[in-house]
């Protein structure tokens, strides 16, 4: 995890203007995308191999699925369900982002690369999941907080966005972006049980509970444990502090401007409350019970339970 050997931020390889020149796979997979069942919603979805992927990002996902080849043993793929702690995990792991299918740019990144995606486990390329693949770190979160976070996030662009519709897309038909959430989470959960050396399963609530412990675990898992000297120098605590909600929210770069190549999102929207349990302020006890029941049912017998954190508010 030492900075000197860490990955180079994605931006640096785009500085020579290559990002703009990378061809996107949009045209190549236009026919495939057009042939898939569609759901009109804030981020229009297409049902691809059992998951509702945002139409805009689907060509990049297909390109990733078909062509991404990890560099072993260095590459690490960071995966999250949207609004479950992607930004935090990326900061903690110095991640780079693969969302738009800038394949040539990805190729140019020096090793070790950290690649971030929301791609469901069954859609990961065989080159990642099979023998000779690479390591994967996954993060998920209490679905109740995830729904609230997603709604609050998208409302920044569409203030009249219905919470009831958003809730249904997670709790009822699973059409939320990259959903069904239960299948997304279970794919990585089962993989983490089958191959603990290859898939590390984390929750947002775990990180809230003890970020240091999980940063250590992540560093060990990635094959870059903190050395005794780094431990003694307080490197773990420093990393946690550097990536804390307050620190990141307060950074000038995160307070102004927008990000996103598709919908332009104010950067400060990525830092809202940063707690567990904020759902109590946004959903009725009946809705919460219903969502819990759906997930309890889906997770039954898997050994996974809905993540719980200390109540907020
Ligand atoms: P809330 O909306 O509940 O505040 P993602 O990064 O996957 O989009 O997830 C967004 C959620 O992570 C938001 O949750 C956001 O506030 C929270 N978050 C972002 N950075 C964080 C950090 N450094 N520490 C803790 N939570 C963070």
Automatic annotation (TrEMBL):
GO terms, molecular function: sulfotransferase activity
Protein name: Sulfotransferase
The entry's keywords: Transferase
Transferase among keywords: yes
Residue span, Sulfotransferase domain: 104-303
Family: Belongs to the sulfotransferase 1 family.
Enzyme Commission code(s) on record: 2.8.2.-
The protein's enzyme class: transferase
InterPro entries in alphabetical order: P-loop_NTPase, Sulfotransferase_dom
Pfam families: Sulfotransfer_1
Domain of life: Eukaryota
Positions of the UniProt region annotated as Disordered: 1-24
Entry annotated with the keyword Transferase: yes
